[in-house]
Amino acid sequence: MLSKFWFISIFFIFTHQIFAQIDSLQRKNYTAVATQNAPIIDGVLDDQAWDKAPAANNFVMYYPGDGDPIPETHKTTIKVIYDDNALYIAATLIDKNPEKIVRQFTQRDNLEQSDYFQVDINTYDDGENQIRFAVTAAGTRADAKITGENTDFGFNIVWDAAVSQDQNGWYAEMRIPYAALRFPESKEQEWGIQFLRQISHKNESYTWNYVNKAVGQMSQQTGLISGIRNINPPTRLSFYPYTSAEVDRFDGETETNFNAGLDVKYGISKAFTLDMTLVPDFGQTAYDDVELNLGPFEQIFGENRAFFTEGTELFTKGDLFYSRRVGNTPIGFNNAQREKLENEEILENPVRTDLLNALKVSGRTERGLGVGFFNAVTAETKAIFRDTITGNNREKVTEPLANYNILVLDQRFNKNSSITLINTNVTREGHFRDGNVTGFLFDVFNRSNSFNVTGEAKMSNVNLAGQNETGFASEFSLNRTKGNFRYGISHELANETYDINDLGISFTNNYNNFYLNTSYQIFEPSGIFNQYNIELYGNHQRRYRPDINVATGGGASIFAMTRDRFAFGGFAEVNSAFKDFFEPRRENTFITYQPNITGNAWISSDYRKKLALDIRSTYQVFGENSRERFNFIFKPRVRISNKFLVIYGFEYDNEINRPSFVTLQPRDIIFGNRDMRSFENSLQANYNFTTRQGLNLSFRNFWSVAQFEEDKFSKLNKDGSLSAVDYNPEENYNPDANFNIWNLDLSYRWQFAPGSEAILLYRNSIFNQDELSDLDFQQSMDNLFARPARHNISLRIVYYVDYNRVKNIFNS
Q1: Which of 59, 146, 304, 417 is deepest in the core (most CB within 10 A)?
Q2: Helix, strand, or coil here: 68?
Q3: pLDDT in tens, 490-526
Q4: What does the alpha-carbon distance between residue 110 and residue 696 come to, in Å, rounded to a whole number?
Q5: Whole-prediction pTM
Q6: Angle at 282 between CA 280 and CA 284, to 5 degrees
Q7: Are both 683 and 718 inside the same structural domain?
């Protein structure tokens, strides 16, 4: 009821301002000039096409200061021209000390510490959705999709850029084809645009249009580009055929595979694009950072498949889309072991479902309505059992043919606000589980961008065999979003049947939580600091049904960066006793964990230097049984040259005397006192011959052991307390674990043409898990290397085909 009262009150307070137009600040306006002769993109600005173009200059400081004019020693001038095919941008970036220009060779989308020039284009001028193009002084290109404060560098499109350098500074040229943009049907285009220059050795950045960091977001404060008239862009149709071959050797057996497939990108209109993947191949996606997981929740991983990361900003609204659900573990995978008959063995039980095809359509109309549709189909998956007496085989479907769908309608207005309707649906063939979730979201700023109201209402429906379950969840927050001093309150609620896990990810439900925060930050240098932010926060968590207290806590955090780019920070928290309803693995039961205090501190040195260092440490202590936890991360990075970068990572985690779940018995839930420690060593090394060719090494070894103290087992009581019980792991389930994993990737990547690349990849991986928790690190490694190693080498080639170029070749 309280969340409804907040919503109604605040909504009416803001109603009179929602549909008002934002006062236009003093926006700079640039008029582009048409050209009949496109410039050659070589980084040398000697083409006659640039002569008639006006200059955009008078850049002002964006960081660390606020609006100071760029010095004459770093004068910056931009020119923009266009034709029927593309937009062309030239940048003259003066530097009176050219030897200080930072030119670090990196691969695409990795700006590192280089000087760079950046262009943000918002073709709908809606204050939120824009495309970012950047090129470094070394020639590395980067592109991203910007949605509000989210920057997605997984968004890759085909465009071109080149740079040059002389005694006066450096120069950049860009060619941005209209195929890379979506824009409204209009005789004259008016787009939001922002130019930014990063001067790394001075630790300064400057923008063309002034950005007030104390108000709103950078995307809401672009300049304007006009004069682009009567453009007749070509058909936006491109193909990405690929072929791949691999040789895999494991445990004395060798397998070879050959795959071929196709990705298609088609501009349905100037505003909407169809992306489709046919016969997808994800064989070269990065390894997941798998860890020993003894908790009640599944481990989640980032998305490594390009199709599910490029242009997906509409589909992630409301956090209802966890893309790893598509092609994930079959829903009946764990049941296969339980359904094995007495005389059977499992011959096959695939851990992944195969993705047959996927497509997405997305775009935005000139009135600000974003529309997105996503569909994917995964194949039927079966487990195969063999009768060891008769020799007969039988099959069991663990995941039927499944269809995944998302539909999104997202209306932007006032250049700072939006309302969204989203539906996700998973339909499985036959009598299997289906899921459907619908969400309504709003994100509204007032006229001056000083206050923000956000809210979500989501309804889930799960269709199980013989029954349906409907759930509900809501979120509401009110935040001060202007000035040095800010604050906010929020509320989250979900009933006990809320479930979005067919296509989304949600660990908990049945909650009724309240949060508040207040902070103070600076936007201009003060004393030795370029920036700092101090925050106080608190929370009160309750069970929705029955209405009982779960926990209350609060804390403070700080982030600071000095003028020398030395950053540090940390937090301190105090939390009350906590009723954990998920660790027991049985409904309507909980274990009570005692109050705890947590402290964290970290430092990060200047990445511009040859040697830089990141250190982080966390300590947590509980008011029970000497329970504590310590975590330490050490991550040095060495830039051996502008082409060679090495990053080593070490992480140590040690948890002592944690009351942890062991097993379920017919009447009792068994807990034990667990010690758990882990070591992680990782290495990232990149050697770039050019900005389009490079070697990459990625290595990770993670070792973790969990050991339960002898004769310290308990049973869980109804009031959340524990009482001693006689439990013998040797006669029952032994919860001790020794987990060790080793992954190594060595790849050579060559971008041999725009949009085209070849990747040669060697992989080496070993895995071992057992109950030998008393082994030390060396003994565990010896056991690991006694296991068979998997060796895999693969070659994947993707070639970009532009329909217009092919058409012109055939016409000629």
Answers
A1: 417
A2: coil
A3: 999 999 999 999 999 999 999 999 999 999 999 999 9
A4: 13
A5: 0.89
A6: 140
A7: yes
